[in-house]
Amino acid sequence: MVLKDMCFFNKVLLRGPHLIKPFVLSADILVIKSPKKSPLLLRMSVLIFSMVCGVFICSVCLKQISTHARTMLMELQSEKPSRNRFGLTDVPLLHYPNPVSFNRSECAGNPVRFFAILSNQRSGSGWFETLLNSHINVSSNGEIFSVRERRVNVSTIVQTLDKVYNLDWFSSASKNECSAAIGLKWMLNQGLMEHPKEIADYFNRRGVSIIFLFRRNLLRRMVSVLANSYDRYAKLLNGAHKSHVHSTEEADTLSKYKPIINSTSLLVDLKDMEKRMAKALEYFSINRHMILYYEDLIRNRTKLKDVQDFLGLPQMELRSRQIKIHRGPLSDHIKNWDDVNKTLHGTAYECFLQTDYSS
């Protein structure tokens, strides 16, 4: 009953216009809230702004990291001797050898430095060694370990080294008893990499300073290796094989041969060369050393002053009679140049195609 009365009462309120007036709401009482704006657009704007800022910050950081890494690589490639760089001593150790084959007489009190040139074939080591030997106080005895019997095992290697550093090794480079620096040239494939720990320990024990000599343009080195191997059998110079020449005529004759490079394995071969050099640097990083590049020696002869400082020698102008064989662009020295150019184009080794060190 009560429910029916309430329903009737509501109907009267809704139907009776004279009764509705008390329920009309004035503008002062009625407050209409505007609908809230959707936050989706605002959130999307903030998200996009955050993404843009993040990308910008990351790009700046990556650029700084890349620049730092490139700078470190350039410093390594152009490494020059300086104090506190070698980890052992700032100056080469001094020795006073007492050879059994002769008497140093009045030079017995003169100190001697020991060194070893570690390199690869056709990397300018022969030319570099003639430069060193032009110094009146230096004797570098060549590729002693090219003879297999001298590198059969660690014992024969040590015996040979002892003979060299005791001044009892005689070669065309041997100077008088007053030599101030004694050393040799040692190729990485002549037993050096087979016994790295024992040799590194020997160098440390005897105070031998290492000069690493490498070639940046490995493609040019490959051309030189192939051409030299061919001439061993062809003997282009009047029936005689020469790895190094002293006249432009001889150089022109040898450079006429254009080797064919295996473009299929070229990238792998170049990477293998790089790995071998990196391994050598890793094995002998504990030794006092400096790093040289053939191209730097050609372009900047002040590098030779760095070498003399490294060995603790009085400065002299160093000279060599050797003539560079493969001059000018590489396209003049590779028979299948188009294949090689196509293989290296767009790779990390593309720079090898254009670089010319003839100057």
Automatic annotation (TrEMBL):
InterPro entries, per the entry: Nod_factor_sulfotransferase, P-loop_NTPase, Sulfotransferase_dom
Catalytic class of the enzyme: transferase
Keyword tags: Membrane, Transferase, Transmembrane, Transmembrane helix
A Pfam family annotated for this UniProt entry: Sulfotransfer_1
Ranges that cross the membrane: 40-62
UniProt GO molecular function: sulfotransferase activity
Signal peptide (from-to): none
Record-listed E.C. numbers: 2.8.2.-
Limits of the Sulfotransferase domain: 117-316
Protein family membership: Belongs to the sulfotransferase 1 family.
Protein name: Sulfotransferase
Organism: Vigna radiata var. radiata
